[in-house]
Amino acid sequence: MTRTPSVPTSPPYSLQPAPLETLVVPARLDGSAGLNRAVTGRAQIAADNDLDAIRAWLSRFVETKATFENYRKEAERLLLWSVVEMGKPLSSLTHEDCLRYQQFLANPQPASTWVAGGGRKHPRSDARWRPFYGPLSPSSQRQAAVILNVMFSWLVQAGYLAGNPLSLSRQRARHTAPRITRYLEPSVWQEVKDFIATMPKETDREKAHAYRVRWLFTLLYLGGLRIAEVGANTMSQFFVRRDADGTLRWWLTIHGKGDKQRLVPATREMMMELSRYRQHLGLSALPSPNENTPLVLPMGATASNERIETCAPLTRAALHAIVKEVFAGAASRLRERDDTASAQAELLEKASAHWLRHTAGSHMADQQVDLRMVRDNLGHASLTTTSIYLHVDDDRRHQETEEKHRVDW
């Protein structure tokens, strides 16, 4: 279904939430005369209304898809809330308004206006699209505040706003969490592996799906990859080099978050799983430096398909759906076998692909992999936000990762 842009009507509360690209804001609410507009100095952007100002800010992030979508989501939600619920331009929001918005995030009401039915994500062109999929968790509320603070600060710096209404908020000192909680303990991780091992392989499609799932979970766990990194990188980024002792070691170059690049040790176990997956697809066991085959392929892609290297990679949503399906299946299998394991099953049902990244880091630490090596494997900037960078020899990092961090299918 195609969404019809919101048509400005009177009063303002009759406006309906719509995506930024189709939203039409009445002149009295567009911010051209916002109370917080800068009245002195020279504006650094050409925007004369709030919607154009937001678009100018978002244009800085179009090259990084995940960042752009997250920032657009938060800016869009605030703008819609401001004009639909408050009946005032975003550039007229006060500090008190921002406090009300924080309360709104915890329970967006009325749900029929703000929350997608059944918590489902619909395309932005679909009439069923809504800005929310349910109440935001405390951590998501904090993340929204951080992003909006960045936006307001930039609009002040750009000479569009006179001040940042969020800057008056009490800034709590950030403390390092005592431990990661969103990860799978070894026994629960074993349940996931057992479920994958028993996936049906009677038909060609079932077999292809099982091979793909096993390879995807290998990448996420052994490589500690983010789900967006799986879709954004290709098999040509595997390469081999000889270390000081003459040993050939495989590596995977990952272009990750913030356009940063890191080297992930491609252990013997990872390369064996890669070869297993590639040979099932009819490809050579090892990738060549010039092939642009996605790290994980869509169903039906095989070497007999001449365009396999030009296949579009799986989207982040598609990869996420595969992971969630596996976790749900493992949880169901666990419940059927052990009616006392409901807590573990519920944990699996909450888990996402990012939990595998936390699981990888936690298991490496449990196996006493040097924390500096864990940091480099996962692409973290430092051990703590205040620690200095510590150089770790790459060959030793590869060897220790290979010896102590295994998936053990």
Describe the structure using short key phrases.
single chain; 409 residues; mainly alpha; hpI Integrase, Chain A; 2 domains; 3-stranded antiparallel sheet; 14 helices; 44% helix; 5% strand; disordered N terminus; Tyrosine_recombinase_XerCD; Integrase_recombinase_N
Q: How is this structure best described in words?
A:
It is built from 14 helices and three strands. The chain has two domains: 12-157, no CATH class; 186-404, Intergrase catalytic core (hpI Integrase, Chain A, Orthogonal Bundle), CATH 1.10.443. Mean pLDDT is 84; it is low at 1-13, 173-178 and 382-392. The radius of gyration is 24 Å and the shape is globular. Strands 1-2-3 form a three-stranded antiparallel sheet. The chain is mainly alpha-helical. Helix content is 44%, strand content 5%.
CATH class of the largest domain: Mainly Alpha
Count the beta strands.
3
Quaternary structure classification: single chain
CATH superfamily membership of the largest domain, which one? Intergrase catalytic core
Distance between the termini: 44 Å
Helix coverage percent of residues? Answer: 40-55%
The helix/strand class is: mainly alpha
Strand order of the largest sheet: 1-2-3
Cα-atom radius of gyration: 24 Å
How many alpha or pi helices?
A: 14
% residues in beta strands: under 5%
GO molecular function, one term: DNA binding
Domain Tyr recombinase: 179-402
Main location: cytoplasm
Organism: Caballeronia temeraria
